[in-house]
Structure to design on (1536 residues):
């Protein structure tokens, strides 16, 4: 029998947004789900128009997500949405997630999970209590070669990990530095909306998550310098961090929005006693293993020599590039496994997608960075 | 108003096939279409099972495509499929395309278009007469940076084109060369199914199409050597071609299935009097312009400095890699534009997807290669 | 008239050493100099044997550099060496340089210049007083494309520099981490010989020098964590540094000897308000400019579009790779310009090679790193 | 005992020439030789001036190479040159080589060896009879990683070779195509001086030599199209060749001087039944092995895991790039081994440098290309 399509709703992500369409393409790529409901904008008219353009039944397009949660929860089980994708700015993540989880609806949520550590702790508890799936879209862990990297670390190919360098430079704000009149006025720079961090919340948390996903290393202490280069920026647009991982590994982690000419250049290098690894998001279908004898081995997506997770995560065979959407879709695919289990009356199983636990670590990471930065880069212990 | 989803059918591409899921993901990526019918296999039971797994209404899953064409044509307009995707081996392309076109149904078809030049000419006429859309999935032309390359040539950035080097090596058959017992027995090597060519029909036609798409150059004469290295191969698994383009440009075109260790390494280099260009399918989001002053300019997908076609073809902004599926989806998106026009009673407009005219050139190209090869690599004029 | 060949002597660098032959090849590459004297080892017999293998007149092969300085100084001007290359371990740099300078002989010396800041200050004064040339072999600044990078910064192409990331990972010690019995016993790890730092003295100073050469930025404060991963290592084999440059730029600088599988991967990325730049020592003939519009421009060695310094520093035209020796030879070539001027009775002119001033900064940099590290990574002001 | 420095003479290569300084740097890089004599130009005054700038004894600077050969031959053995480097345009190679060999002087000569096949055959015989060393500077075979490639083929790592793609595009003439007034008037385009071929003599012979050096494959037949794109060019500036090697391998070989934006992009890909290999001259310190399982292994210069020849050919360890000069110097180093043996009264040993036998093959290759091209690309057997 065919699996029935899961029904999804969306909060935010109206037409014109960047991340809304990404979620829609990712969630539906495998034909496993369709979006049937949404509250696409705080502006009810805009929301209606977005629903219309997406071909939704107008009765399922809501003026606010609060109304949506209430109404959807009351629908019969065979009509009600199975999950909601929350793609609003940061400060909406917590209340919307809370509401839908408490309404009994599974949640896929953008990162960072919340804007405060207290909220993150609360949400983690709500998720645990809810018996529902909560997936956080640290989408870069969906790439097949990231899974291969994790596999190589966990099976001991690298020996003991001693050093990790993770970088996430973007450059799109660099042109604004010289143009103070060019008030960017984006929500990312508004502490009321973004929380206490811009660059590190947006990019740095992806970097932290990627390190932890691949290596399993947990941060002990951070020493951070956060800088706002763009005049008028109320939050940092660049952050450099020294990291001490539990167990003795040392690391560098940086993220930037003012690195002129960089696009979305997340990369990671992991060095163990036996081998080094390198992966770059902008060339995602390859993983470089650096061998101590001076050779490098390039693994490539879609081959049988990869671990099972990497093979399963590839939508196409060797030489046929998978991209960002396919990786993002892998987060959804794993969440859908969990949702189907929950629908079948089971507890949410452990699936290969970021969870509220990861979300809490991410927010704790931001918190530690902010504390270190405020203390003039004192080493600061990370506390979840 | 939302555009209604177009209804698609599929011939071939049952579960387990490589190209079937690619078509399904590509056709539905933008939420513009859904598959509602299919004849997925010559084996009616397999077809049924595939339909089931895809969640199709069993009444729309047919034992043969002939039945499918007949039954679908009789359905009311608001149920009938808008298009059929034909993804069977080569010898099925012509009869299936003919049947559906004559039944008034738009066709998206895999390449090469037919197995004989006569059939290609016939099909071109049928398409013209039908008033329907016929799109051939030379999918590599769907990549944004290929469109940028075409733009740079057509706007004169390269000056007059003098040389084109296009290569399409794969290596998956290389291990078979030494293992004669390893009879591959694939349809690609069966002249009854594949037509007169294996490697050049499968890969070489993509290369020819890519050159023509980017440069507009038309082949005048070819001088080809086709070789079957794998013991037992009845058709060539490697082909090297010298090309004379109309207007004086010269070229090299080769394709291979025995180039050990290569994956899907289609690449093109175009040299004009003012600039050279290079694009590689395995790193598709970049285009290299080689300037005579010794600099190279790397253009990358998703930026505002690209031509409109390249911008429109990108699903994501800079630094967020688009892959094979997204490029493939661009072929469908253009075909859908045409289909919506036809549905609205118009003549099929000129859209940016390969057509029956391209298909005819591709088959003529194969024909010329075979003739040249048989004559011990005599220069042979290509005739459509 | 042909320029006469300058006569060189060497301290250290006997047969079997790594850096001795590099100096010999670099100094003689252009036919401007020849080595005629040396004290190649602390072991007089080894020194003699090295001199023999190099074809030197035995009367010019000395048992110690002290004897060498004394004897060479007494030779008639038309026989005496014009310069000495000091290629012994770190702790020999200061006394040997002092001795030869005071004997009136120009010095080319390996880095770091001295093992203590006090010595560095003293040597800087000795150099100034001597009227002789003192060149420090921060050889990486000899690469043509490094000169092009400097030119692009100094002519404002990048706008204001905001961020610099410089990395220098090597991996040759990584295999030793797990093998404590494998006591490496190298001089680099002996504080008596190497000074207070291993990795940062050996590699980190190159990184610091490269940043300063290209950008002109001066370090204000550093925040460093230095780690000895290899059991038994008395000095650090890995160092991560946050940097505050005067004027507001921020940076990351790291060096490592335990980054498994890395060879000699010095690289630098400089980000200004208008452009980013990237250069990698392992691919030295190219410089990447990252433009805010999403294009990257690759400049390559040996082309007319480069600045004069970059053109002059290239020994071969485009497409003919210059390597490490050629870059090293550029340091010598500039030193030779100075030596010829001094020989002609002039004051040492400003030539394009690292000087005692650079050497002092390098030692001050190490000093600041050690101080910061000892204080648990407190921000520490760098003082020359 | 130190080896005495070999004494060299040079024919051609006066100051301002490109290749003269390359030979001088390459020959003297290891301190094994020095140039003491020369006939640097057909213009005696220019020759004198070049000798002066090089610091040569005026009595050893000759107005013509004929005078040079005569005079040098009469010098006492301990003054006479040990070898002559012939770096004049093509038509000078034969008479000068002949003259010096017959005067008992070893010869290092630029390629192509002669301008006619008859001369090549004659010179091969003269060399054999002379008992002297004759080395042809197909310098690209001097790169360490080319030697590693040869080793991997010869030890069976690739299995049976089936396909070879070798490319040598340059672009420096591309700008001339549109400027007919821009008469280039270079000797390379003058059949009286260059012989029957420009591009293939200059670049194509390197490509042929590289294939043979790495694979040992010998050409059976060629099918060539040679084109002069630049208006006024009397010889071809672009050539595309299909190749049949003895034993069944097939190949593509092309060279070009009109490939806009290419610098000196010699590259080779070799495909066997078990593995593929790729090497690029512009990135010469790496060799890529393409494995059938979808991994690629990058070997890099200066590591212990390479074959002995590759290790010996590296002047510097891993991560310290060797360049064009170092590779060129390896040709000289091997020739010097032979010359020292000859000086010691032995027969010229088999050393790892191209010989007159290679030179003859190169000229025969050009001859076959010209014959094939004239016959409208008929397959033409290559005859030495």
């Amino acid at each position: 029998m065919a699996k029935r399509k899961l029904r999804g709703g969306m909060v935010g992500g109206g037409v014109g947004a960047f991340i809304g369409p990404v979620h829609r393409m990712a969630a539906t790529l495998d034909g496993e789900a369709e979006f049937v409901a949404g509250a696409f904008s705080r502006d009810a008219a805009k929301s209606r128009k977005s629903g219309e353009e997406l071909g939704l039944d107008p009765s399922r397009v809501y003026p606010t997500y609060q109304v949506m949660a209430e109404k959807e929860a009351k629908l019969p089980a065979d009509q009600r949405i199975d999950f909601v994708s929350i793609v609003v700015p940061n400060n909406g993540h917590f209340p919307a997630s809370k509401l839908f989880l408490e309404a009994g609806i599974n949640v896929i949520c953008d990162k960072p999970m919340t804007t405060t550590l207290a909220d993150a702790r609360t949400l983690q508890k709500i998720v645990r209590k809810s018996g529902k799936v909560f997936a956080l879209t640290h989408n870069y862990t969906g790439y097949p070669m990231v899974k291969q990297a994790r596999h190589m670390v966990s099976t001991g190919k690298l020996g003991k990990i001693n050093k990790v360098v993770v970088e996430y430079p973007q450059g799109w704000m660099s042109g604004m530095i010289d143009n103070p009149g060019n008030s960017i006025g984006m929500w990312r720079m508004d502490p009321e909306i973004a929380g206490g961090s811009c660059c590190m919340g947006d990019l740095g948390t992806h970097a932290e998550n990627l390190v932890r996903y691949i290596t399993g290393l947990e941060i002990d202490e951070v020493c951070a310098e956060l800088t706002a280069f763009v005049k008028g920026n109320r939050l940092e647009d660049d952050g450099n961090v020294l990291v001490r991982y539990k167990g003795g590994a040392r690391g560098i982690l940086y993220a930037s929005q003012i690195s002129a000419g960089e696009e979305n250049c997340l990369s990671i290098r992991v060095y163990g006693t036996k081998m080094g690894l390198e992966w770059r998001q902008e060339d995602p279908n390859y993983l470089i293993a650096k061998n101590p004898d001076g050779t490098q081995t390039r693994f490539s997506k879609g081959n049988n020599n990869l671990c099972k997770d990497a093979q399963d995560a590839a939508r196409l065979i060797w030489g046929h590039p998978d991209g960002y959407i396919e990786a993002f879709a892998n987060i959804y695919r794993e969440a859908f496994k969990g949702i189907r289990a929950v629908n079948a009356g089971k507890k949410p199983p452990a699936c290969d997608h970021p969870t509220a636990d990861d979300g809490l670590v991410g927010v704790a990471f931001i918190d530690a960075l902010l504390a270190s930065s405020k203390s003039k880069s004192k080493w600061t212990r990370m506390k979840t």
About this structure: Residues 109 and 293 of chain D are 44 Å apart (CA to CA). Chain D touches chain B through 48 residues (CB under 8 Å).
